[in-house]
UniProtKB/TrEMBL annotation:
GO terms for biological process: chlorophyll biosynthetic process. It catalyses: uroporphyrinogen III + 4 H(+) = coproporphyrinogen III + 4 CO2. This is uroporphyrinogen decarboxylase. GO terms for cellular component: chloroplast. One of its GO terms (molecular function) is uroporphyrinogen decarboxylase activity. Residues 117-133 form the Uroporphyrinogen decarboxylase (URO-D) domain. It comes from Olea europaea subsp. europaea. Its EC number is 4.1.1.37. Pfam families: URO-D.
Length: 338
């Protein structure tokens, strides 16, 4: 489950009381390992996701940031001009040793019982924070720069593509079995703009990663990706994450059977009566087809989600078996990509 470690879990909230800084929790090896293992120990999913953030590598290539309690991430010196670009430098993995150490420990702790999952942000999505100076609902500054200073944005995106691809390889070398690329805000672009300002830089990343780590599956997830599915397939990733606003049967039809898919139960279903949640899981699995499906939510676990519902989600998933003679339900079992 995306965001399977976090505030909905009582053990996490208790730990967060002792360590109130998110940066401390996500940048201290012992805490990263402990938090990453909390949902695995409670629910035994097929994947253990490193507890981290898509902005974690920014200081390692010249973009310091803070996280404020109310407003979230804040970048005091946004990059919007050629002069601003001078602050960027190649990624320094000495500043990210806590990520490598955590992945290595998780791999040893879990063994072959689950896949270790790493993740990164896509260049466009990371650039929205760097250009806007933090979170935004309108993306007006970066969308304007697409037209007023395209050379600056292209230079930033190219730098990010190289740095983040190297960060993926670093995660794989440290122990990650699989990597998910979050182009979380790619869906804020019209499709033709996504083709111009996001896809080429994901393409570059995937090409570099595939040369260095050909056996590592890559998942691409975009929030609000209904208009982008076919274009996402063109990036060369192994798995397309589908959000809950897309009908899974339609998504499978549009993408074809030659690529794996992930998703896409609406996270709000975890607040529903358990029989309703179970029916929805079975519907999604049936619509996804008989192979190449990773059951997941269509977005991250919501704050306040009952832990009982999360447990039920995984229990139902484990109970499903595909048998053409009996029913038409499939299960994405322990193999991450079927």
């Amino acid at each position: 489950m995306m965001r399977q470690a976090g505030r909905y879990m009582a053990v996490y909230r208790k730990l967060a009381e002792k360590h109130p800084s998110f940066r401390e929790r996500s940048e201290t090896t012992d805490l990263i390992v402990e938090i990453s293992l909390q949902p695995w120990e409670a629910f035994h999913p097929d994947g253990v996701i490193i507890f981290s953030d898509i902005l974690t590598p920014l200081p390692a290539f010249g973009v310091p940031f803070d996280i404020e309690e109310v407003s979230g991430p804040v970048i005091q010196s946004p990059i919007r001009s050629e002069e601003d670009l001078k602050t960027l430098h190649p990624i320094d993995f000495e500043k990210l040793q806590f990520v490598g150490e955590s992945l290595s420990i998780l791999r040893k702790e879990v063994g072959e019982r689950a896949a270790i999952l790493g993740f990164v942000g896509a260049p466009w999505t990371i650039a929205t924070y760097i250009v806007e100076g933090g979170t935004t609902r309108t993306y007006t500054t970066i969308k304007s720069i697409c037209h007023t200073a395209p050379h600056v944005l292209r230079a930033l995106l190219s730098h990010l593509a190289k740095a983040i691809a190297e960060y993926v390889i670093f995660q794989v070398d440290a122990g990650a079995h699989c990597i998910q690329i979050f182009d979380s805000w790619g869906g804020q672009l019209p499709p033709h703009m996504w083709e111009r300002w996001s896809k080429p830089y994901i393409d570059k990343m995937v090409s570099v990663i595939k040369k260095k780590c050909p056996q590592t599956p890559i998942v691409l997830y975009i929030n609000g990706n209904g208009g982008l599915l076919e274009r996402m397939k063109g990036t060369g990733v192994d798995v397309i994450g589908i959000d809950w606003t897309v009908d899974m049967a339609d998504g499978r039809k549009r993408l074809g059977s030659d690529i794996s898919i992930q998703g896409n139960v609406d996270p709000a279903y975890l607040f529903s009566p358990l029989p309703a949640l179970e029916d929805e899981i079975k519907r999604v699995v049936q619509c996804a087809g008989t192979k190449g499906h990773i059951l997941n939510l269509g977005h991250g676990v919501l704050v306040g989600t009952p832990e009982e519902a999360v447990a039920h989600f995984f229990n139902v998933a484990r109970s499903l078996k595909f048998d053409t003679q009996v029913d038409s339900y499939a299960v994405g079992a322990s193999n991450l990509v079927g």
